[in-house]
Amino acid sequence: MLRFLLNVLWFVLGGFVMGLGWWLAGLVAAITIVGIPWARACFVIGNFSFWPFGYEAVSRRELTGHMDFGTGPLGLVGNIVWFLVAGWWLAIGHLSSAVACFVTIIGIPFGIQHIKLALIALAPIGMQVVPTHR
Questions:
Q1: Rounded to 5 degrees, what angle do the CA atoms 127, 131, 134 make?
Q2: What is the DSSP string of 89-125?
Q3: Residue 123: which of 65, 95, 84 has the closest Cα?
Q4: CA distances (Å), 114 to each of 26, 34, 48, in order?
């Protein structure tokens, strides 16, 4: 129940805007056709950005124990391109939202989620969102 309440508060108090930012980046990437791998990552992380409590993003390599396109050298190149094109501004959005959340004691859990999402924004290729086991 607490997770649901935190997700609703998150969505209303800024998660909706950041999720739309991820989806907008995904739409722009999808329009280019070449950016479809980045678009997929944007939509997955965008959904995570809408409802982050109870989920975490982990590397597929850690999750499966195998390397794939997103966790190997092509994923590294993809993340570098991503960072230069869109990752930095999504990270800045999450970091500025985190600072605003940290102003109040009640906002600290939200600020922590924004920091996690800012780190993911820097290199989302090869990440998978999974439920938290708590």
A1: 130
A2: HHHHHHHHHHHHHHTSSTTHHHHHHHHHHHHHHH--T
A3: 84
A4: 19, 28, 11
Q: In residues, how long is the chain?
A: 134
- C-alpha–C-alpha distance, residues 110 and 22, integer Å: 17
Cβ contact 78:38 at 8 Å? yes
Q: How far apart are CA 48 and CA 45, in angstroms?
A: 5
Averaged over successive runs of 10 residues, the pLDDT of the chain (134 residues) comes to: 88 86 91 87 89 88 80 86 88 91 89 91 88 76
pTM of the model: 0.83
Question: Would you state the pLDDT for residue 23?
Answer: 93
- Read off the amino acid at residue 36: I
Structure tokens at 62: 């850690």
Helices (H) and strands (E) in the chain, counts: 7, 2
Both tokens of 131, joined, read 């439920």
Taking the CA atoms of residue 90, residue 96, residue 99 and residue 105 in that order, the dihedral angle to the nearest 10 degrees is -70
Query: E strands within the chain?
Result: 55-59, 127-131
